[in-house]
Predict the structure.
Amino acid sequence: MTEDVFKAQLNTSNFNDFKVGWRSPSNIALVKYWGKKPIQIPANASLSFTLSESCTSTEVQFSLADSPSFDLVFEGKAKPSFHPKIQDFLDRISPYCSFLGAYHLSIDTSNSFPHSSGIASSASAMAALALSICSLEKELGGLQDEGLFFQKASFLSRLGSGSACRSVQGPMMSWGVHPELNNSSDLYGSVFKEKLQDVFKSYKDSILLVHKGQKSVSSTAGHDLMKGHIFAQSRFEQAQIHLTQLKSVLQNGDLEHFIRIVESEALSLHAMMMSSHPYYILMQPNTLAILHSVMRFRQETKIPLCFTLDAGANVHLLYPESFERQILPFIEQELSLFCEHGAFLSDAVGNGSQKIV
Ligand code: DP6
C-alpha cells in the first residue's frame, strides 16, 4: 500500500459546516519506538497497550472559510504556545486532506490528566484531532469503509507524533513493519490481532508521577540522536527480537518472560539516551529508587509487578488486575513517597478512541 490511498478525493459541492468530537487515550509502549527516518517512519516496530483513563477530549467546529485557519482553546483558555505544533501538523497532513483548505477549525481540547503531570499528551491529542478530521472527511462522502477510516486516522496521527498512531484503537496496537505481524505497516498503526491471553486485556497501569515538570530533552530531539548512534543498529535489532518474543508471551501468558522483555525495553530506551552524543539522563534519583523497590517487592512476594518507562522520569507499573489488592497498598504506602506530592494515576488497558460529539 502507498500513501496515495490516503489522498482524499471529495466532491466540493458537499462541503458544509460540521462539528465533531473525539476522546482519545494515551498509550504505553511495551516495545519502544526510538529512532526514525523522514517523515515519521519508525526505525523498528513497536507495540503498546492502549490506556483507558489518560485521555484527550477534542471538539472541532469546522466552518467554511476563504482560507484555511484555526483557533485553539485548551482547558478553557487560548493557548498560543500550542499553535506552531498544530500548524506543522495541518501543513504536514494537507496533501492527504486538501479539503481542509476550505475550512476554519475551532479546536476545543482538554486532558483528563492534570496539566504538567509529565504525561505525554501529544499521542492522545494528535489522535483525537486526526479522528475529528477523518470524521469531517466521512461527512463529506469519503472514508465510508470503517477499516480505512481508522487506518487514515492512524496515518494522520503518525504525521503529528509517531506514537500517536497507536492511540486510535485498542486494546493493543503495533506500528512498523515486522515479519511476524500480519499487515504491519510503517505508515499507520494496526490493532494487534494475534491471540491475546485474557490477563492482558485488563492489565493495570499505575503511573507514578516522579517529576511533573518539562523534560530536559524532547522525544523528537531524542529520536534525532539515534542517527549515527554507535548502538543504533543493535538496538533496532533488539526491538524486533523483543517483539517476536512478546507476540508468543501475549499468546501463552508467561508473565515472567513478559516482565523480562518489558523491563529490558524500558532500560534499553534509557541506555540509548545515556550513550548518545550528547548524552543525557531523564531518570531522576526517585525513578531509580522506584525501580529497585519494584524489583525487591517482586522477589519477596512473587507478585508479577513490572515497570516500564517512557521518555521521562515517571514510572508506569504494569500488573494483572487480580493483584491490584496487594499492589495498591504498596504503591500508596511506599512508592508514592518517591512521587512529586505523592501523586500517581490509576489507569488500565482500554479499547481505544470514542466519538463524543
Ligand atoms: C519513548 O511519539 O513522542 O514514548 O514521533 O517525535 O512525536 P515523535 O516522538 P514520540 O516518541 C515516543 C517515544 C516513546 C516510545 C514509544 O511510545 O514507543
Q: What stands out?
A: The radius of gyration is 20 Å. The mean pLDDT is 96. The chain has two domains: 3-196, 199-348.
